[in-house]
């Protein structure tokens, strides 16, 4: 497992790479810094995203989890930059209950890159599992110019 820390306006982010794939993004500082091609490219893309110069990540990702977790992550990855959808929208797409989608969104191991912040509740803004909670979600949505969410 290799890690690096990326300072952004959304907080310090720890990227984790295993077997040439990004497997996690967490908030905080990595205990050690590693330099791999995957982490260097992930750093470059994350900094470009934070600077408003990148709208879609193109990184090798591996979501560790159930087939359902991966399906929800795939659905979240398809939400365009600046757009939002609801847990119910994804639930209809996958033929599952919205609560199950909510749980999978909360368990997203690679937030921001897999944009769980773009998923809303039926009545608007909901929680966020990253550091800073809802405030970080709002900051990410504002950064992307997403409209139509309720605060």
Automatic annotation (TrEMBL):
Keywords: Cytoplasm, DNA damage, DNA repair, Methyltransferase, Transferase. GO terms for biological process: DNA alkylation repair; methylation. The keyword RNA-binding does not apply. It catalyses: a 4-O-methyl-thymidine in DNA + L-cysteinyl-[protein] = a thymidine in DNA + S-methyl-L-cysteinyl-[protein]; a 6-O-methyl-2'-deoxyguanosine in DNA + L-cysteinyl-[protein] = S-methyl-L-cysteinyl-[protein] + a 2'-deoxyguanosine in DNA. Its EC number is 2.1.1.63. Pfam families: DNA_binding_1. It is found in: Cytoplasm. SUPFAM superfamilies: Methylated DNA-protein cysteine methyltransferase domain, Methylated DNA-protein cysteine methyltransferase, C-terminal domain. Its main location: cytoplasm. Residues 67-146 form the Methylated-DNA-[protein]-cysteine S-methyltransferase DNA binding domain. It comes from the Bacteria. The active site is at 116 (nucleophile). PROSITE patterns: MGMT. GO terms for molecular function: methylated-DNA-[protein]-cysteine S-methyltransferase activity. GO terms for cellular component: cytoplasm. Belongs to the MGMT family. This enzyme catalyzes only one turnover and therefore is not strictly catalytic. According to one definition, an enzyme is a biocatalyst that acts repeatedly and over many reaction cycles. Involved in the cellular defense against the biological effects of O6-methylguanine (O6-MeG) and O4-methylthymine (O4-MeT) in DNA. Repairs the methylated nucleobase in DNA by stoichiometrically transferring the methyl group to a cysteine residue in the enzyme. This is a suicide reaction: the enzyme is irreversibly inactivated. This is Methylated-DNA--protein-cysteine methyltransferase. It comes from Sulfitobacter undariae.
């Amino acid at each position: 497992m290799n890690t690096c820390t990326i300072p952004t306006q959304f907080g310090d982010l720890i990227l984790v790479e295993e077997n040439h794939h990004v497997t996690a993004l967490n908030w905080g500082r990595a205990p050690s810094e590693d330099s791999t091609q995957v982490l260097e490219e992930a750093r470059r893309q994350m900094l470009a995203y934070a600077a408003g110069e990148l709208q879609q990540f193109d990184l090798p990702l591996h979501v560790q989890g159930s087939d359902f977790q991966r399906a929800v992550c795939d659905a979240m990855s398809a939400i365009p930059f600046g757009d939002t959808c609801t847990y119910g929208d994804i639930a209809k797409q996958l033929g599952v209950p919205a609560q199950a989608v909510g749980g999978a969104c909360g368990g997203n191991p690679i937030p921001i890159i897999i944009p769980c912040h773009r998923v809303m509740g039926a009545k608007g803004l909901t929680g966020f599992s990253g550091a800073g909670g809802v405030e970080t979600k709002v900051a990410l949505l504002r950064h992307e110019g997403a409209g139509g969410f309720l605060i």
